[in-house]
Every structure is written in C-alpha cells, then in structure tokens.
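Intended use. Records like the one below are meant for learning the mapping from a protein sequence to its folded structure. Do not use them to infer anything beyond what is encoded.
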Amino acid sequence: MAEHKRKKNSQNIKHTKQKKIRSNTKKLYTVSIALPGSIIDNAQSIELKTYLAGQLARSFAIFNVDEIVIFNELGMQKSSQSQIDSHTKNKREEGISSDPNVFLARILQYLETPQYLRKELFPVHQDLTYAGLLNPLDCPHHVRKEEKSPFREGVIINKKSGGETSLVNAGLSKHVIIDKSIKPGVRVTLDMGNYETSKNDNQYIEAKVISPKVPKQHGLYWGYNIRIADSISKVFTECSYPVRNKEIANIQNF
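Structure written out for the chain above:
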C-alpha cells in the first residue's frame, strides 16, 4: 500500500514538472485559425451571439492561438480592420453592428484585452452590452494589480511635458513612465524589469516599451491578434506570418 502511494506521488510530481516545462518552453511556431463571421448569425439574440463569441474566445486562449482571421464567406468587401480598431476611436458609437464579422471581432478583441484597460480602449457600444457577463479568459497577460510579472500590457494616458516621456496605465497602484513619446490611447507592451511596487517610493514606476512578441519568446502566451479578411483567399495571401510561396501561388487562384 505504501509502495503504491509512493509510486502515485512520484507520478504526480513528474506530471507537474512536465506541465511546468511545457508552459515555459519557447514556441517555435504560430497558430492561426480562420472562421466565417456568419456563424454569429445562427444565434437568435444578441445575448446568444455574445455567449457564442465568448466560448470561441475561451477555446482560442486554451489552445494558445496567435491569430484569428474572420473572413467574409461572400467575398464582398464589407468589413475593414478600422471598423474594429477601438484603440483609435474617440467617440461613442450607437447601434448593433449589421456586419457579423465586425460584431464577432469586437467581442473577441474586448475579451483579449486586460480588464483594467477596457474602459479606456473601448467606447460604449451596444455590441458590448452583455460582454461584461462573460467569463474572463485569464490569460498570462491579464495580470492582477498586486501580481508581479516581468511584462504587462498598458495604455498611454498622457505625454509628459518636454515630449520625451509618456505615462502609462498598466493596472498598478502607480502609473508607469516610459522614455518614448506616444500619443494617448495607444496600447503598448511593457518590460517591467525587477520592480517592487511596495518598495518603490518614486512617483512613477519606470519601464520600457517592447514588442508584443518578446513575452512569447520567453514562453508566455500573450493573447491573440484579430484580422478581418474580405475573402477566404486573403486569409492566406494577407497573412502576417511566413507562408511558403508555393502555397500562396495555389491559393491566389482560389
């Protein structure tokens, strides 16, 4: 009995170590998934549409998807990336999107964004009426206020006088200051270094802006990007990740 218990404990320890290794292993590939926005039309109400989009977002996060491509299966140019780019919108919007591609993209983008940034990045919109009821994705970049992380997502809130630095809301008790001048409302990825908020007596926390690819290079899943394609062929031809030329040549005639 004791021998069986020791064997079981050793297996649990081995499984835990393997799981930890997998989570810290650098991923040498990217995962993209394409789906038509028309799947949202199958839902009968905005509540069900939102719930369906939320379930999709959770699945994408669980499988560490890097890019989500929402394509128009009719091949008509109805949508554009600017329609869902909430980072550059400064006015309130009204009405539910008639384009299911835009609706799905907006919900997915909302859920991917850390909760402490949503108020500043997303204007009030009826598409998001029930988005607050969805379960959070709890991705590694959704860092809590008192949680220490080498990287954080933030949004520029103000430029300091002199134009050489900017203040960033990174979901901490203090604002972060960076040595770059960036216009307010832009989302950035921060390298926080070895900061200690409880021991930091300065007015601001110093950090530097980095590429969103850097956390992924350290083995962290750092959310997904969203792209709208006007046709299924553009899912491949407009891909931002390397695709073999032979494959593109065959797809362009599709």
